Amino acid sequence: MGEEIRNLDFEILIFSSMFNLSNIFSKKTLGQWGEEYIADVYRRKGYKLLDKNYFNRKGKQVGEIDLIAVKDKNLVFVEVKTRTSAAYGSPAEAVNAFKQRRLIKASKLFLYLHPEFSDFNCRIDVAELKTDLDRKQRDVTIIENAIEDTQ
Fold first, then answer.
1. How far apart are CA 127 and CA 43, in angstroms?
2. Against a cut of 0.90, is the pTM above it?
3. For 20, 52, 85, 110, which has the most beta carbons within 10 A of its beta carbon?
4. On the CB side of 145, how many CA atoms lie within 13 Å of its CA?
5. Tell me, what DSSP letter sits at residue 88?
6. DSSP-based three-state secondary structure for 58
7. Contact at 8 Å (CB) between 99 and 77?
C-alpha cells in the first residue's frame, strides 16, 4: 500500500511538471489573495463587505462579482484584477467589453434579488492590485465607477 502511494505521488509530480500545473494553481491563489487584500482596502475605507464571488446560484449564469460592499447609501460592485507583471497590459485592461457586460448583468440581477438596495447609489469599480512574486510590494489603484451601464 505504501509503495502504491509513493508511486502515485511520483506520477502526480511528473504530470504536474509536464503541464506546469504549479502556474495554474499559483494564479488562482494570486487572484484569491488579491480579492482578500482589496476587500481589506474597502473595509479600511469604512465599507462593509456584503458578499464575495457573487453569482446567480439558481438559473442562468450572468457573471460573477468579486466583491459587493456598502457604505452609507452607496452600494459598490468590485471587479478585482491582480497582476505581477505588466506584460499583458494593466490589470484594468483585462476587463474587456464582454466582462463589462457580464458585470452589469450580474449587478442588475443582484439589485433585482435585493430590492432593499433599490434606493442606493450604485457603481462598479475596478480595483487593480500590482504586486511582486513575493507579494511584498503592493500598488493599489481603485477606479471608481469604471463601468457604466449605457443601455
1. 14
2. no
3. 110
4. 6
5. T
6. coil
7. no
Give per-residue pLDDT as tens, 30-66. 889 899 999 999 999 999 999 999 987 666 677 899 9
Q: Where in 4-112 does DSSP place strands (E)?
A: 48-54, 65-71, 74-83
3-state secondary structure of 52: strand
Query: Which are the contacts of 90, defined by CB distance < 8 A and separation ≥ 6?
Result: 83, 128
The residue to which cell 504530470 is assigned: 15
- For residues 70-90, b (16+ Cβ closer than 10 Å) or e, as one string? beeeebbbbbbbbbbeeeeee
Question: The C-alpha cell of 110 is what?
Answer: 443582484
Q: For residue 63, what is the DSSP state? A: -
CB 128 within 8 A of CB 140: yes
In order, the DSSP letters of 68-82 are EEEETTEEEEEEEEE
Helical axes 21-44 vs 2-19, angle rounded to 10°: 80
CB of 146 closer than 8 Å to CB of 128: no
H or E element, residue 56? none
